[in-house]
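Class, discuss our next protein.
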Amino acid sequence: MAISDYLAGGGDNLTFFKTIKPRGTGVLLRTAIADYMREQTQQGKSIEASVDGRVK
């Protein structure tokens, strides 16, 4: 699981993450997402988004 430092530190009231010892990777979450998208498109796969109705 990848999560931002902000959320892992209890930001936005996600205090349950504070009990887990973080393991830093040195990779920014945005870089991991961009790398994944780049790999997928290089393989000819498309990146698709869908509305799941969580935001009203």
User: Anything to note?
Assistant: Helices lie at 5-8, 29-42.
